[in-house]
Amino acid sequence: MPTPPIPDELQAVLAKPNPAVIATLRSDGSPVTTATWYVWDDGQVLVNMDQSRVRLSHMRRDPRVSLTVLDGDDWYRHVSLLGRVVRLEDDEGLVQIDRIAQHYRGTPYPARDRGRVNAWIEVERWHAWGP
User: Fold this and answer.
1) Do residues 65 and 85 lie in contact, with contact meaning Cβ atoms separated by under 8 Å?
2) How far apart are the first and last CA of the chain?
3) Pairing relationship of beta strands 20-25 and 44-50 according to DSSP bridges
4) Residue 30: its pLDDT value, please?
5) Contacts of 92 (CB under 8 A, 6+ apart)
6) Are the C-beta atoms of residues 82 and 125 closer than 8 Å to each other?
7) What is the mean pLDDT of the chain?
8) Residue 62, φ and ψ in degrees, nearest 5
9) Distance of CA 28 to the CA centre of its chain
């Protein structure tokens, strides 16, 4: 698998609000996957989750993750990113989830009554498939 930098044409795919699935590791080492929103941010991936999500405890225990992004225009084209969570932080004022929601839906995130956490992922390796 290649290491960064990721080619410009694949960064263009990552910059779009495409469907994505994140994999984290349970305490027994088995993977668990979850559909997620993300934002490609200057070579890193930002994901955001409710503070009660189990995947957050997975990331705290083992920062290794994988994110697969499907090109919304051609699902046979995808980019898989392997890396690790390098920073977890509370999403004060829901700034980052609003940013992600704007990216996907064009509106701020509607649920304002629960704390959220940002996870910044540093890409170590990547793989792509498709035209």
Assistant:
1) yes
2) 18
3) unpaired
4) 98
5) none
6) yes
7) 96
8) -140, 110
9) 22
Q: Which amino acid is at 5?
A: P
Q: In what order do the strands lie in the sheet with 116-129?
A: 31-36, 20-25, 64-70, 78-90, 116-129, 44-50, 39-41
- Residues 96-116: tens digit of each pLDDT: 999 999 999 999 999 999 999
**Pair of tokens at residue 10:** 């694949």
Per DSSP, 13 falls in state H
pTM recorded for the entire structure: 0.95
State the DSSP code for 16. S
Tens digits of per-residue pLDDT, 38-48?
999 989 999 99
Report CA 27 to chain centroid distance, whole Å: 20
Q: How high is the pLDDT of residue 75?
A: 87
Place of tokens 């609000």: 17
